[in-house]
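Quick question: what would this complex look like in 3D?
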Amino acid sequence: SQQGEEDPQALSIQEGENATMNCSYKTSINNLQWYRQNSGRGLVHLILIRSNEREKHSGRLRVTLDTSKKSSSLLITASRAADTASYFCATDAWITGSNYKLTFGKGTLLTVNP
Amino acid sequence: KAGVTQTPRYLIKTRGQQVTLSCSPISGHRSVSWYQQTPGQGLQFLFEYFSETQRNKGNFPGRFSGRQFSNSRSEMNVSTLELGDSALYLCASSLVSGFGNTIYFGEGSWLTVV
């Protein structure tokens, strides 16, 4: 089952606009990561935010985490056509004992129109 | 520094055959994970290896197996292929196993089962 659920499933904006994607999850987490995937390619790591952090920035990316609401958001400012991709959130969760796994949501497909 | 390398990038197999996919992690990384990505199920965790030992396993049948060598390179094998095994198989590596480690993905191996 999917731990993270991204919202919206698809987002289409114009170049220069900001894009906001949300991720909700069900169980307690230690960390949440955001990844980008261009069509048919591998995943590129964007940002890791720990459960004791509320906000993190990296270039044009801003990630927030609200553990009380079990949600995170990814903001891309001044979007470019090259930002067109699928964006995934991934949470780590215990399986059993000391074992854990990284669980991905189904992603948001972002299209930035020139 | 070279990234995660997966081979082959594309392959077509017939139902009932078996397939072996290879992954070379980033130099110095000792943890290797495998994921299956399909349009219907999204990204699903297969297993993780650390120091040649399988640490975690996802909910996949025994037809899916893997191993890790002393140089941290990893292989995954799928036996008795089914049409539903058609997917993008992604390998990821990180320095160590456990929470909070940034995980880097390869470009994936596209498997088509006919």
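Answer marked as accepted. Chain B touches chain A at residues 4, 6, 33, 35, 42-43, 45, 48, 55-56, 58, 88, 90, 92, 98-100, 102-108, 110 (CB under 8 Å).
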